[in-house]
Amino acid sequence: MKRLEGKIAIVTGSTSGIGIGIAEAFAKEGAHVVVCGRREARGQEVVDAIHGAGGSASFHRMDLNNLETVDSLMADTAQEYGRIDILINNAAGVGLADGRVDEISLEDWDAMFASGVRGTFYAIKAALPYMREKKAGSIVNIGSMASVAGDLGSTAYACSKAAVDMLTSSVALQYGKENIRCNCVRPGLIVTPQNEAHVPQQLKDIFLSNIEVNRYGCPDDIAQACLFFASDESAYVTGQIINVDGGMNSHASTVAQFRAMGSRTW
Description:
Layout: E1 8-12, H1 17-28, E2 32-37, H2 40-52, E3 56-61, H3 67-81, E4 86-89, H4 106-134, E5 137-142, H5 155-175, E6 180-187, H6 201-210, H7 219-230, E7 241-244, H8 255-261
Parallel strand pairs: 1-2, 1-4, 2-3, 4-5, 5-6, 6-7
Helix pairs in contact: 1-7, 3-4, 4-5
């Protein structure tokens, strides 16, 4: 079943990790996927893999720090294929400084918001004219479970992802009457081929003790949620935020400790 047959889908940040999983899943379901990111050689590898599996894809360089590349991504896609049906906002900066409120410089705070919020906002803004022209479109923002509650660190990241949650709601409200939908997927711990060697076992164990299913997440878990939001199956769904975290955020914070004690409650 080709759930995205004939659709044109832009997946930002699709040269690694979750983005690759989304791009491959969309191509498998019949979409032409515009793979985009900063690394052209890596992007071409993703495109070649999709072609090898019988799918349709092309690469377009995009850097969220260079808004002209975002404009050209949207304009070139619309010119080449006649429309933009789907926008997946997955791209975000990596390796940015973060920490507690007293530790973060204003420059680091601004850099995190520029990557996590400004880029997502601008990609939507740049795609909207093409979607409004056709009076149709599905936008899916990739958020994070970090926005669900406070944390001991990662303050700027969590706040930037909380802003993505609100941006999702605002876009859904403002453009829903034009048949443009906007939803958000919040990944939990997702182990990818690119990050697996860098995720300490202790961290995996902590997460697994709080995850309700008996495994970590993988890119395809996020891809399947995005696929639902991108397809006509969710035509009556907009403004929604879904946690794809194995149930980690659906229970009391003391569950892991009580489970370790062999107790159901105190």
